[in-house]
Amino acid sequence: MPPAPRLPPVGGWSRAIVLRLLALGLAVLAVWNNQDGLGAVIVLFVLVVPFERLFPRHDHQGFKRPHLGLDVGYALASPVLQAVGLTAAVVVGVLSFAWMPGLILRPYIQAIPQPYLLFVGVALFDLAGYWTHRWYHEVPQLWRFHAVHHSPEHMDWVSGFRAHPFDGTLIAPAFFFLIAAGFSPEFSGLVAVVQIVLGLFLHANVRLWLKPLSRLIMTPEFHHWHHYEEEAIWCNYSTFLPLWDILFGTYHMPREKRPSVYGVDEVIPMTMVEQLRYPLEGMGNPLRFLRHPFRSFKAMCTGLWGILRMMKRSALRPRHQPFHRAVLYVQGEAAGADALAPLPSEG
Questions:
Q1: Where are the alpha helices (DSSP H) in 55-183?
Q2: Contact residues for 152 (Cβ-Cβ < 8 A; gap 6+)
Q3: Separation of alpha carbons 297 and 56, rounded Å
Q4: DSSP bridge pairs for 262
Q5: HEC profile of 92-110
Q6: What average pLDDT does the chain have?
Q7: What would the mean pLDDT of 198-221 be, rounded to a whole number?
Q8: Which of 247, 94, 220, 210 is nearest to 157 (CA)?
Q9: pLDDT for residue 344
């Protein structure tokens, strides 16, 4: 087959050059002020890439795969993006009300002996993270932010960095939950950091399943299925313990095949600046709140109420429901009651 012609990008080359210069400037600014992103790239390259070369999951996937530069750019710019996301994380953590069940459980948690408190804290963090992650997938308004993270069509050592800064708020409810439950900020922060580092490793192109322990510990196989667009993108939400997916009916680890198709079924631009803008499209001018405060507040409350309704439907959908039927159930788009009725196998 002859090579595909090199077509100009959407919007023309001038627009593409400007967007790439903006992304380059963002990465340079981040490295200039903080070398954490550069350090993370170097450490992951040294520690993970050799395993990808020796024990690859996909033999055909070369090191220089498509959009590698985009993901490296996200990694270099991560200090700046995380600083932006931190502000949003505080707002989301407070408005998520995850601290309320934490306050309720606080007296019981304080009665737990110290040697067991570490395991309880990790399990509770993962439980809160499970539900936050699930709602970021199953609530359309939240999915637009998380879709950027799922847009890579190749999984490897650096693809985990591709994420919208507001998507980092995923961890915020779990963090606030632990703080309200009586755990120290240092412990909660350490668990959050470990979650981020482990998440990067779970994206690696490494053949590691550990079948006998697959229901007890996390492996790249578990998370790769989570990025498998056609079948399991609404499964395997846990970060530390597959237990929660098993308990809530979203565990997916078939033995007869392995995930090979990644990405999303929507068109997401492949430049950093456009991806950062993608979830915000259609939201209008944020300054309209100054001109129409009451109307804007009413619209915000209506939107939040719609999100809460979606979250409820997500939490109550039948266990082990196939993806296409789960979408109809959560979004309420079925034509009739028969479309929402569970299959016999869904019990």
A1: 68-95, 99-110, 114-138, 140-150, 172-180
A2: 67, 71, 159, 162, 227, 262, 263
A3: 51
A4: 228
A5: HHHHCCCHHHHHHHHHHHH
A6: 82
A7: 82
A8: 220
A9: 41
